[in-house]
Amino acid sequence: MGVFLDGWLAELVTALSLAVVALYVRFHWRYQYWKKKGVPYDEPTFPFGNTGLSILGQKFYGNVLHELYKKAKGKRFIGFFSILRPLLLVRDPELIRRILIKDFPSFHDRGVFLDDEEPLNRQLFFLSSAEWRNRRVKLTPAFTSGKLKGMFQARYTTDVIVSVGFGVDSDCQRNPDSVFRHWGRRVFAPGLKVSIGARLNFISPPLADFLRIKGGFTEVSSFFRKMIADNVEYREKNKVTRKDFIDLLIQIKNKGFVAGDKLENEKSTEKTVAGDFPLEDLAAESFGFFIAGFETSSTTITASLYELAMHEDIQSKLQQEIDEVLKRYDGNITYDAIAEMSYLDKVVSESLRKYPPLPFLNRECTEPYTIPDSDVVVDKGTGIVISLFGLHYDPEHFPDPERFDPERFSEEEKANRHPYVYLPFGDGPHICIGMRLGLLQTKVGLVNLLSKCSVQPTEKTFRNVTYNARNILLLPAQVVELRFVKRS
Ligand code: HEM
């Protein structure tokens, strides 16, 4: 016998039904949000809003956003929902420019949730603005071209990142099972639970916060933190210096700034002092460099090689440039030699257009904001999303967008289009801090390979790429099979 009804089962079913109805009403009411504001929006469905396929791992989030972008053709922005959270996808390049740069004070957070109980989460990409600003000022001098030139060694992605970031030799090229590749893979090819968590951190931060989902790094946390702590201790004890990020981060930890840069004097305000960048933050930051630089650059190298294999004419033209420049540098792949390869720059730019490793940018509205030339007020807390697939594949900006054409990046073509329709590294104060390093290591990898080998498709090489729906970063769902043929 139940308290109100005949049996406990009937009471349970009734209570559950009432809860579902209450939830449904709550969602239905929330889903009127954009309508009430007079903003065009994509009709959401209960309970995931417009991002269900991505949260459930059935569709790549980059593609979900691309479709929304296409649906909003002719409009400056479109509203949508991630579960209960209203988001605004912005299409208009002029409005994008304002959000990223001029009106940055109203959008200074990225709006991604990562639990700060996990020490590795305390890194630039995820910090909220109060801490981010100070950290960004400290870290910027570590990425100047002078510093990169000093660190530069001709190695490939994992090795470069590991060498410059961690000060240890990873030997990933000769040993594909090296410990770094192993841990790198654990970060980027996580299990189901971690991958759902990672998607929620980006797609639905409030739910991730509610569920206290820590982000994907807990599994790898102790390995990286111990490695960095041992490394720092060894260097400090034995007075070892190497020209790498760890050196620079140790300087920040001990002195509060990086020596030898203009910024040292310009920006060392009273906030930039020793002691507010402890070892734990140093570890988080170097781990951040590892994760931000590992997959992004290797994806760009793979994408470039894939397109070059499919376009023999472009590959020959590039190899001709590489051969000519390297001849002048006695075969040495130096920083200056890479800088002289202008066609290489176009090829990499076009690869980043078609395959932006992070195919969206996000910001959170941090104070009510009236969209210029409209009556729409964006409320504090609203998520702002910019679809890079949308912009980079928009035929209005890039005619015949599926075609791989490095000439889109000739000075003339670049001058003919709006600068905010091509944003593989983002822009504004949150722009990728590792842009120069990412480009450099991608180019070094390509030059190393293409100076010795040509690349060809095999019968198994796919013609239509699809993306791994469980990942936030762009990763092909299939293996990219290519044949390398030694050049004579
Ligand atoms: C081809 C390589 C790379 C691509 C395409 C790429 C792309 C991006 C993008 C799109 C953002 C977001 C920018 C925004 O929101 O406006 C970003 C942020 C960031 N990237 Fe990269 N990245 C690359 C390589 C690297 C490397 C090598 C590092 C470090 C060693 C790095 C470190 C970071 C950090 C720390 C942030 C956060 C910056 C901030 O919020 O202040 N990235 N990157």
Automatic annotation (TrEMBL):
Residues the entry annotates as binding heme: C432
Assigned GO CC terms: endoplasmic reticulum membrane
Name this protein carries in UniProt: CYP6K1a
Co-factor requirement: heme
Matching CDD domains: CYP6-like
Pfam families: p450
Family: Belongs to the cytochrome P450 family.
SUPFAM superfamilies membership: Cytochrome P450
Subcellular location per the Swiss-Prot or TrEMBL entry: Endoplasmic reticulum membrane; Microsome membrane
PROSITE patterns the record matches: CYTOCHROME_P450
Residue ranges of the TM segments: 6-27
Membrane topology: Peripheral membrane protein
Alphabetized UniProt keyword annotations: Endoplasmic reticulum, Heme, Iron, Membrane, Metal-binding, Microsome, Monooxygenase, Oxidoreductase, Transmembrane, Transmembrane helix
UniProt-recorded Gene Ontology molecular function terms: heme binding; iron ion binding; monooxygenase activity; oxidoreductase activity, acting on paired donors, with incorporation or reduction of molecular oxygen
